From TrEMBL:
Swiss-Prot/TrEMBL catalytic activity: Endohydrolysis of (1->4)-beta-D-xylosidic linkages in xylans
Secretion signal span: 1-39
EC number: 3.2.1.8
Family matches, as SUPFAM superfamilies: (Trans)glycosidases
Disordered, as annotated region: 342-364
Organism per entry: Phytohabitans houttuyneae
Biased composition (Low complexity): 342-353
Name the record gives this protein: Beta-xylanase
Active-site residues per Swiss-Prot or TrEMBL entry: 274
Entry keyword set: Carbohydrate metabolism, Glycosidase, Hydrolase, Polysaccharide degradation, Signal, Xylan degradation
Amino acid sequence: MTKQLRRRKARVVGTWSALFAGVAAAAAMTTVMAGTATAATTLGASAAERGRYFGTAVAANKLSDSAYTTILNREFNSVTPENEMKIDATEPNQNQFNYANADRIVQHARSQGMQVRGHTLAWHSQQPGWMQNMSGTALRNAMLNHVTQVATHFRGQVVAWDVVNEAFADGSTGARRDSNLQRTGNDWIEAAFRAARAADPNAKLCYNDYNTDDWTHAKTQAVYRMVQDFKQRGVPIDCVGLQSHMNNQSPYPSNYRTTLSSFAALGVDVQITELDIEGANATWYRNVVNDCLAVARCNGITVWGIRDSDSWRASQTPLLFNSSGAKKPAYDAVLQALNNGVVPTTGPTTGGPTSPPPVSTPRR
Ligand code: 9MR
């Protein structure tokens, strides 16, 4: 097409200036055909053009801070309650549920047209005292009741749930993490997923963990094998969340894209759920975005807070906005990477074609 047009223009007019005009016209046509949009000016808008979301963790007690909500409302189209949906927040006493702070975040998100990721239904940490002291069948039943009650309360309002969080141990064993939940039996994770599916059949159900970015790590491989096993046995699972807290001890791995595409090839969505990077290394941020955009089923990125002062690791200044709310170089890198991503010609990537098979074979 381009060559033909160029040849025709050259033949008809036969001057260098006309040739130049023809090339320029062809280039413009090529641009339109590739579906490239005009550069979006916010993270959420740019991600949405590419069938994805760009989200942040939100704390209910900051919703009264207008500097905070100004950035939140302008830049993001997905929110994850940072602590307000956790077990200690939603069921402080057994069978007494408190959704006040979580509901405030959900209402804010809905009023702004943002989606909500639910975090988290079953976790060894941030358990209320009553649950910490339980074990065995009583704990298993209490956990399942918690999953059922909370997922039912937010049914239709949460697009994806971190059903189970951080259930694998660090280090080289690839073993499950020891916890009171794990001691109720190895099937506690699938039991939680089945309860969540029954309570909210339309929410995407995710397994979420940290230090699962490097494809060669034992923990990554262990989570991969669990997801593979769940898919083979029909345990309901729709997505894997990679927290992706990166720093000098857990650097951006050059095989990150392999990790994303390998999980995606199992037939699940992949979401980057808690991204923050020590010092806000702009190159690492750009790499993460490029890797997600390269994998069709990597359908969203969430950063774990808005300004550095909002971060759980504030001293590492790991976020996209400084404590005054100004955009950092990492913000520009992320927005540029998003804007450079291909705009799909058909709908969002979720449920779409799966990514190609993993480029390396997982250890078995
Ligand atoms: O950012 C959260 C912080 O405010 C809490 O004090 C902390 C308590 O465990 O949890 C933080 O969020 C964690 C998330 O829920 C799971 N992955 C690790 C996050 C950072 O610790």
